[in-house]
Batch of 3 targets.
Target 1
Amino acid sequence: MDADAVRERASDLPTEPGVYRFLAGDSEDATVLYVGKAVDLRDRVRSYADPRGERIRRMVDRAGAIDTVVTDTETQALLLEANLIKRHQPRYNVRLKDDKSYPLVQLTDHPAPRIEITRDPDENATVYGPFTDKGRLETVLKAVRETYGLRGCSDHKYADRDRPCLDYEMGLCTAPCTGEISEADYRADCEAVQRFFEGETGVVADPIRREMNEAARREAFERAANLRDRLKAVESLHTESSDAVATASGEQRTVDVLGVAVEGERATVARLQSADGSLVERERHRLDHPEGQRAGAVLGAFVAQYYAERDLPDALLVSDRPDDAELRSWLDREGVDLRAPGAGREATLVDLALKNARRRGGGRDETAALADALGLDRAERIEGFDVSHAQGRSAVGSDVTFVDGSPEKAAYRRKRLPDRNDDYANMRSLVRWRAERAIEGRDDRPDPDLLLIDGGEGQLGAARDALAETGWEVPAVALAKSEELVVTHEGVECWPDDAPQLHLLQRVRDEAHRFAVRYHQTLRDDVSTALDEVPGVGPETRKRLLGQFGSVEAIRDATLEELRSVEGVGEVTAESIQTAL
C-alpha cells in the first residue's frame, strides 16, 4: 500500500477513538499485520502515509487494506487493541503469548436475545466493551437482568420449555420462553439495555437508586447498602472510575514489580509480586516484538495484554515508564500507582526484576534447546502428566503447565481416575480426557507445544494411543525416572546430565509427580472416617493402614490376616477395625 492509498483510506475515517488493523490482503480472512489504537482514527491512520521508521515502512508496504472499529472511549480502544493482538498475534506488534483477553457483553441475534459476558462473541451479536474488570461487569450484568429481566440461559435450556426456570422465580428473567412476557415488550426491554451500554446510565441507575432510597426509608439498611454498591458499579461502567474497586483502607496491599530486557526481536519481562510487604511470586514472560522497539513500548504492551482477566495490583513498579499515555491514564483511573523508582527499597526490587529479565540459562534458552533437540518449531508451552494410586486405589492424574520454563499454576488441572492397578490404562484415560476437552473446546487453555509423560515406553504408548483415538495432534515424549532417558516416537535419547533441555523436562516431570501425589494423598488421608473411632488405631497406625491398602474401602474388604500383617495391628485391633467398618 503506497502513501496515496493510505491517505485515501484515512480520509473516509471518523475523527473518533477506535482501533485499526493493517491487513496483508483485502479479504475477510487476510493476515493481520499490525493492530493499533487511536484517539482520532482519521489522524492516526493518515500518519502512516509517512512512516517514521523502517519497520513501519515495511509493514505499510506489505499491507493491502486497513479496517477499523470505532469505540466509545479511549480506554475501550486500549483494551480492544490488547484483545485483537492476543487473537491475531500480528507480526509487527509486541506479542505476549497467552490466552487471556478482556471481557465483552453481547446481546445475541435471537428473537428473544440472550445477554452474557463473553470473550469470544457470536458473529451476528451486538457487542459492547471490552471492559477492564470482570467482577465489576458481573455485578452490572446482574443489576441489568434484575431491572429488565433479559435471559441468560443457553439455547438448549431455552427451547421447548413448558414452565419458567429458577431465574424467573429469582427475578432475573421475565421468561419469554413460556410467554410470560410478549415478544414486543421483551424487545423494548432489550432496547433499553442497549441504550444503557451505549452510555445512557440512568436507564439502569435510576431504578436502582429508587429501590435503594425505598430500602433506606424502610430501614432495610443491609439491602440499601447492597444496592448502593451495585449503583456504584453501574455508574462507574462508562466512566472507568476506580471508586467501585477501591480498597477500604486505601493502603497498597499488592505491588507488582516489572523489569524488561530487550534483545533483537525477543524481549523478556520479569514480574515479581509483593503482597503485604513479602515477595510471594516470581515469573518471566517472553514476548515477540519487532526489532527496534523501545523498552517503554514493550512494557506498555505487556501491561495491557498481561492484566486481561488478572487483578491489577495496587501499585506497579517498573524499570521503564510505559510510552503509552492512554495506558498510564487507564492505570490512574483504575487506582494503580505507577512508579519508576530511582532509589531506595523500591529501586532495589526493580533491579532484582531486571536481573531476572536478563538472566540466561532458563526460559527461552531451555525451551529453544528442547525444541531443537526434538525437531519442534517451539517448546514454550509444555504440559506434564502423571498418575498416582495405591495398589489401584484412590487413582488420580495430574496435568501441570510450564510456560517459558516456569510453572503456570493457574493452568494446573487434576482428575480423579477409575480405581484400577494399571498405570498404562490410567495414563491413557488421563490424556484422552485432556485431548477430548481440547477438541471439544471445553478447555480454556491453549494447546501445548509438547506433552511430557512421566514414565517410559509403556506410558508414552498409552498416551499416544489416546492422542490417535481423539485426533489431537500434539507431540508427546516421556521421561523415565530411573535412568533419565527421554523416550520419543523415534527412539530413546540419552542427553548429557548438564543439557538445559533435560533440566527443563526434569522440572516438568517432577512437578507433575508432586502434584499427582499430593492429590492422591488428599484423597487417601481423609481423616473423617470410621478409622478414627477404632480403639488402638492412632495417627501412625492409620497412616500405615492407608499406605498398605490405599483407601478405607480396601481396608474394609481386607481379611483379619491381612490386617494383622500391618505393623502395630494385633488381633484385637484387627477385629475392632472389621467391626467398625
Note: Residues 240-251 have pLDDT under 50 and may be disordered.
Target 2
Amino acid sequence: MTYRLWALLLFLSTMGVCWLLGGWAGYRMLEQEGQEESFRYSQLVANELKRYRPIPELMAEHPLLESVLREPGDQSLVLQANQEMQRMAEIVGSSDVYLMDRTGYTIAASNYRRQDSFIGRQFDYRPYFQQAMASGGSAVYFALGTTSDIRGLYFSHPVKATDGGILGVIAVKVQVDELESQWQRPDLLHDSEMAVLDGGGISFLASRDSWLYRDFEPASQAQTPNLRYPKRDLAPIPIETLSQPWGVSDRSRKVLISEGETPAEFLSIRSPLPKMDWSLQVMIGTQPVMWIRLQFLVGGFLAFIGVFLTWLYLRERYRREAELAQRGEQLERRVAERTADLENSNRQLLEEIRQREEAQNELKETQQELIQAAKLAVLGQMSAGLNHEMNQPLTAIQTYARNSRRFLERGEGAMVDANLQEIQNLCQKMAEMTRQFKVFARKSEGPPAPVDLRQSVDAALKIIAAQSNSEGVGIRWQRPDDPVMIHGDLIRIEQVMVNLIANAVQAVEGADQPEVLIDVLADADGWQCRVRDNGTGLPADTEQVFEPFFTTKSMKQGLGLGLSISRQIVDALGGTLTGHNRSDGPGAEFILTLTRREAME
C-alpha cells in the first residue's frame, strides 16, 4: 500500500507542475505573437511617416507659394496655387493640401472646387500650425478634421522668404484608413484585437468598431483629446487589469473587458509606436492558453504512465536477474570454449597480417629503389650536358695556368694573381655544379617536413642548366619574395621538378621562341607550382601520360617512367599532380599542388 500512496502523490504533483508549465508556455506564445504583430505594425506606421514627412518641406520650396503669400489678393495667383495644390495632392496621394498665411487663414487649397473647401477657414488653433510657426521646421499631428470629420495625419512645414522670414504654412492631410486596413490577424490569433492609442489613451484606430474613440485609460482623466476628436463622447472602455502572468514581460498584462453580455479575458501587450506619442495595444484572447495547458496535462499524464510502467518493468527485471545469473554460469563455460577457438583464429589472422606488412614493406622499398633508379636515369641523360659544362671551365683553367707561368717568368705578379683568382672562381663553379648533382643523386633524408618550395625549384633549375638542350630555351622562374612553406621532402620535390622542367624543355624543341614558365600560386589550403611550355601540347587523353612506360619521345630521351614516378612521389606527400593543355595558347601545363604547412599545424 505504501508504494501506491507515493504513486498517487507523485501523480498529483506532476499534474500541478504541468498545469503551471502549460500556462507559462501558453502566455509566452501569445506574448511572442503579439510582439511580432506589434513590430510589424510599428514598422508600417514608421514607413508611412517617413513617406509623407519630407513632402511639405519640398512643397514649401515652390516659388508660387511665396508669391501668393506675398500677394493674397491676386486672384490669378490664387487660382494657380489652387490648381498646383490639387496636382500635388494627386501626385502624393493625400486627401488635402492647403496653404495658410501667418495668421492661420487658408488662402489656397486643393479642394477649392468643393463646397466644404478649406479656403477662408481659420486654423491658427491647430497644433501643427503652431508648431511649424514656432519651430520653423516640419510638424506632424493627428486629429479629426473639423470640416470633413475624417481622421487624418497632418504634415506641415513653414513657407519661408528668401531672407529666412516665415510667410505662412503649408499642410498636407493624409487619411489613416490605410493604417487600419493593414491590421491582419495571424491564423493563430483568430481571437485577437488591436487598438492604437494617442498620448491620452484614446483609441483612434481599432480592429473592432465599438472600440473606436474610446478611453482605454479612464484613470488618467485626460481632457485634451476633445480638441482632437470633436463631436465624440470618448466613453471609457470597461477594462480591468487582473494580473501579470508568469513568464511574460512588463509590457504584458492579463485584462478583463466587460463589454457585452459575456466578459472576455485578454492578454494585453502595449508597445510604443515610433516618432509619435502613440502606443499600440494588442489584446489576444486567452482561450489558447487553456488548450496548451490541457496538452501539457496530457503530456504529463503520458510521461507519468511511462515512468510508472518503467518502474514496474525494472522491478520485474531485477527479479529475473537472479534466474539469469544461474544461466550465466553455463554460458561462461560455453564462452570459454568459444574463446579458445577464437584465439586460434586470431593467431592465424596475426600471421596473415605480418605477412601482408612484410609484402607492403618490400613494395615500399621497391618503389624507393625505382624512384632512385629514375633519378639516376635522369642524371645519365644529363651526363652529356654535364660533360660539356665541365669541359669549358677545365679548358679555361688550363689556359689561365699556362698564361700565369708566362707572366711569372716576366715578373708580372699582378696578372698572375688575377689569373689565379679566375681559376679559383671556376673551381668553385665546378664544385657547386657537382655538389648539386650529388645532392640530387642521394636518397630521401626521411619523413616529410616543412620545406621551402623555392629551394627545390632553384636546385632543379641548376641541374637543368647543365643540359645541352636547355640552351636557347627561355626559362622564366617567377620566384616569390617570401618563403613558400609546404609539407614535403626537399629531395623528392626536387626530383619531381627536374622531371617536369626537363619534359617542358624537351617539349619546346623546334619551337620558334621556346619558352618555359614557372610560377607559384596560393591555393585554398596549399600552394600550386605551375610549369608551362609553348610546345606541341599533350595527347587528347591527358591522364595517359602518367601511366608507366608511356612516352611521346624517342627511346634515347627516356622510358616513360618520369611522370608516373613523379605522381607516386606527390601522392605519398599528400599532394596532387595534374597535366593538361594550356587554354591561353599552345603548349602543356603541369600543376603540382602541395599542402600548406600552416594547415598541417
Note: Residues 287-381 form the longest helix (95 residues).
Target 3
Amino acid sequence: MHIRSRFKHYFNKYIVESMQRKLMGTLLLVMMVPLLIFMLISTHISRGAVESSEISSNLSRMELSNSYIEEQLNWYNDFLFSALVDDKLVPSITTMDNISATNVFNTQSYIKDKLFGLYNGDEDILSVKLVSYGDRRFYKVENKDFYIENEYDEAKNNEAKAAIFKVDPETNSFTLARNIYRFEDQKLVGKLEMQVSFSFMEHIAEKLQSNEQESILLLDNHGNQLYTPIENDQSIKISEDISTKLNTPKGTKYFTKDKDYYFFQELMNEQIILLKVVPEEVMMVGAVYIGQTGIAILLISIFLTIILSIIVSNQVAKPIVALSRKMEHVEENNFSVEIDTSRSDEIGHLNRKYKEMINRIKELIEKDYKREMENRDAQFLALQSQINPHFLFNTLQVISGMALKRNAKDIYAMTQKLAFMFRYITNKRGDLVYMKEEVNHLNNYLYIQKVRFGDNISIHLFVDEAVNEAIIPLLTLQPIIENSFKHGFESQIEKGHLKIDIQKVFDEVEIIIEDNGVGMPIQVLEKLRGKISSNIESQNRSIGLKNVDSRIKLYFGREYGIEIFSKESEYTKIILRMPYQKGSELNEYFINRR
C-alpha cells in the first residue's frame, strides 16, 4: 500500500503535473503506437496496395489496348468502305451479260485491279472477295492470285447496310463485309468482303505484356482461342476461365481464378474478347520489397521519434503554457493582454501572429455592425429589383386583358408578346438556356417588328429540330437581329428581307443572319471587326455584337464566336458558331436553375 502511494505521488508530480513530460510521453505514444501497428499489418496493407495498383495499371493498359484494336478495326472498316465509293463498281458487277468480249476483259481487269488494291493495302489482309448476286459470280484475290467462280450459292440473308463482322476461329482471322447497293433503286447487287488475320495485334500485345510470364490471348464469345499474339508456355484452361468471366457482375473487367488474375476487354459488340492472364507471383512482386522497406523505416522512425519527442517537449512546453494563459484572458474579452514577441523562432512567430489576430478581432468587432447594416440595405435593394420586374409584367398582362375585352386583338397580341419577352429576360436565373427557348423569345421579338414595319419587310426563320435541346447564352440572337432593324432597315427605302438559319453542322451549331439592308463600307467593316476582337469599349452597333461574341468565347472557347460579312448598299451577314452541347450533358452550373 505504501509503495502504491509513493508511485502515485511521483507519477502525479513528474508526469501529470508536468506539461513537458506529458508532452514527451504523448509524442512517444502517438508516434510509436502507429509505427508498431504498421509493423504488424504492413504485409497485409502492402499486398492490398500493390494488388490495387497492379489491377488499376492493367485495367488502364487493357482499355488503352482496346482503343488501339478498335481503332485498327475501324481502319479496316473505313478502308473497305472507301472501296465502295466508286461509280464504276456497281456497273462492273451488274452489266456483264450481253457485252462485247473487249468490255468483259476491261471490266474484269478493273475488278482485278480494285481487289489487288485492297489486298495490298495491308500485310495482314489474307483475301479480298467481290460477289455479284445478279449473275451468281464471285471474284477473289488470295495468296497473290486472282480467281473467278461462275457458280455462287451463298445465301443472301444479311442485307445490312453497315459493316458485317464475323470471326473465323479456324484461320485465326475475321471477315469484314459490306453489301453493295445500286444507287438508283437501292437494290442489293453484291458484296465486298475482306479477310484479315489477327496478326495485326502483335505490336499491341507487345506493349500490353509487361512480364514474360503474362499471357495475351484473343478469344471468341464462346471462349474459343482465336489467336495468341505472343508465344507462352503457360497452360490456360480457356473454357473454364470464360465461364467464370460470364458470371462476373456487369461492368467488371477482371476476375481471379486459381490465384491468377484475368483481365479482359470485349470488342466488336462482344464478338471477340482480349484476355490477359497475370500470375499471382507477378502481381505481388512489389509487396515483398515494400515489406522489407517498411521494417527499415520502422526502426529508423522509432529512433528519431524518441530523439524528437525529447527536443520538442523541451522547446515547446513552456511557451505553449504561457500562451494558453494569455488565451484564457482573451476568452474573457480582455484584449489588452501583453504577449511576448521577442523570440525569433516558430513560437515567437506564433505569438506575433496571435497578437495580430487579437488586433484584427478588435477591428472586425468595430466593423461588424456597419457591415450588417450594409447587408440589410443590399438585401432591400435586391428585393426591390425583384419586385419591379414582376410588377411591370403583371401590368402588361392587365393591359392585354383590357385590350382583349375591347376586342383590340392586335393590341392584345402585341402586349402579350412584349410581356413574354420581358418575362423571358427577367425570369432567368442562369446564363445558359435551351435553343428552343431562345428561338421562342426571338419569335416574340420578330412579331413586334413585323407589326412595326408591316409589308416593308419579309422575315424567313428556319430552325433545325436537331438543335432544339442545344444550349446557347441567354439573349444571343435578339441583339444581333436588332442591329439589322436599327442599322440595316431604318434608312432603307426598298423592301427589307431578313433571313435567319439555325442548324446543326456536324458537331457544331451554326446560326446565319443575313439582311439586305444598307450594309457597310469595307473600312467600317474592318473597324467593326477590330473592335469586336479587342478589349476596347464601344458605344455603337458593335457593343451588342461584342457582348455576344465575348460570352460565346467565355462559355465555349476562343475558337467559337461571330464572323461578320457586309457590302455597302447590298447586304450584311453574321455567322455564329458554337459547339453542339445538350443541356442534360452539362454541369449543373451551366444549366438554368428553375
Note: The longest strand covers residues 188-197.
